[in-house]
């Protein structure tokens, strides 16, 4: 019988050794596997290379892992923002290495690893410091630089639901880097709010099939959700936020909006409410017609 579930987050991250390369999902706080990161801190692995979109927010999650001195090198596209004080201090002190990768290249390099692509040419970064030392080529009159896949030993991913076979369903834009990271690591570990019986997940909604997943752990529903719907949350200091609003929401505490919400980029974050503008999750709204993405 195939059963990829583990009893707790500690069991999920057991065996991650020092010196590992770890993909960590999330766009800021949206979709960040905080419980798995906390368990990794307790587990004690160090000298890690972390690949993520950001370099931590506030003092929790990835920022906490950095603060503990467990990260030797971070590969990301957006290291600095108003609440990245942990990374800022470490970087200025020379205590962490940084590789900046443009966001599109970062996503494609991770995806390429999962797809078995040896390398690819990208126009992003041509003529900048990011292209220094890289092979360049002109194709159809346009300059490109050669980029290589980003493979990892482990991937830590957050999702909404899963089953014991490892089939995974995400919540709206909390999926972000999750699917491509799940396919690009030797061992993929997924935290979900809920593990459901086999057959309960509609195959049409499964974004990451179980073949890419090695371990699944249930961490319980987020305090700002109720049955998958946003009901409120806390800010970076742990203070309660107001409930659903009629304005455009922000970050992963946005309420229902009549426009498009933001989470530091376009779209809605992992707790963004319904919108009559751009769609989320598996479909994008185009007027009154929904088109599969």
What does it look like?
This protein has 293 residues and is α/β, with parallel strands linked by helices. The protein folds into three domains: 17-100 and 151-218, Glutaconate Coenzyme A-transferase; 104-147, no CATH class; 240-293, no CATH class. 16% of the residues lie in helices and 24% in strands. The strands form four sheets. Strands 1, 2, 3, 4, 8, 9, 10 and 11 form an eight-stranded mixed β-sheet that branches. The two termini are 33 Å apart. Mean pLDDT is 84; it is low at 245-293.
So what's the CATH class of the largest domain? Alpha Beta
What is the H level of CATH, i.e. the homologous superfamily of the largest domain? Glutaconate Coenzyme A-transferase
Low-confidence stretches: 245-293
User: How would a crystallographer describe the biggest sheet?
Assistant: 8 strands, mixed
Strand residues, percent: 15-25%
What is the averaged pLDDT score? 84
Task: Quote the CATH topology of the largest domain.
Answer: Glutaconate Coenzyme A-transferase
End-to-end CA span: 33 Å
Structure class = alpha/beta
* Domains, number: 3
Give me the CATH architecture of the largest domain, please.
3-Layer(aba) Sandwich
| SSE pattern | HEHEHEHEHEEEEEHEEEEEE
Gist?
The chain is an alpha/beta fold and 293 residues long.
